Amino acid sequence: MIYSIVAIGDPVLKTKAKNLPADLPAAELQQLIADMFETMYSAHGVGLAAPQIGKAVRLFTIDSTPMVELDEEDLAELEEGEVPETPVKRAFINPQMVSETGEEWGFEEGCLSIPGIRELVTRHADIVLRYEDENRQVHEEAFSGMAARIIQHEYDHLEGILFTDKLSGFKKQLLKGKLARISKGDVKHDYRMKFAGEGRRR
Question: Which of 155, 28, 146, 18 is nearest to 96 (CA)?
């Protein structure tokens, strides 16, 4: 099932998500995860958090493959001994950030809930995350590079934080009108969306 993606302006995107209960039926969880991956791929995204489909629970999916795939020219430019980043495709249940370390680096981020806007966001290079996998097994794992960035972006969604919240006051002011128009549905998009206040799905 492909869900409509909730646009900026909906209160669910500013709500801190709650843990998925331990007694949630496995079949229900597996279906939700499958639906989230399907929705994410349908919208050409590399990450999707449950609040973005209107569910304020601590779950997100990522597939960093499109962000780290290298063509022959890219591979030729790697320094000697440098290893290409391994793609990460996974569902993260009830994640908790253990640490964010390493040199901070900037990258132009976008968000499926805020189509048409990309801005430079600075994040830590390395993280350690504690989470449950699809079988509810607990892991504590280190991530770096693009995977770490995508995870931090999606983790922020579970905390009620959007990437635009991390911008300077000046940049937020410049974007204020455009964000307001997006929240009302005045934006081009090529995937199903739901806009606050009107209950519209387009």
Answer: 155
Tell me the CB-side half-sphere exposure of residue 141, using CA atoms within 13 A: 15
pTM of the model: 0.91
3-class secondary structure for 11-79? Answer: HHHHCCCECCCCCCCHHHHHHHHHHHHHHHHHCCCCEEEHHHHCCCECEEEEECHHHHCCCHHHHHCCC
| C-alpha to C-alpha distance for 45 and 26, rounded to whole angstroms | 25
- Kindly list the catalytic residues: 154
Torsion on CA atoms 66, 68, 69, 75, rounded to nearest 10: 160
Cα separation, 127 vs 151, in Å, equals 9
Rg of the chain in Å (alpha carbons) = 17
Q: In angstroms, what CA-CA distances link 169 with 76, 128, 145, 157? A: 41, 29, 27, 20
Over residues 37-90, the pLDDT tens digits come to 999 999 999 999 999 999 999 999 999 998 876 555 555 565 666 656 789 999
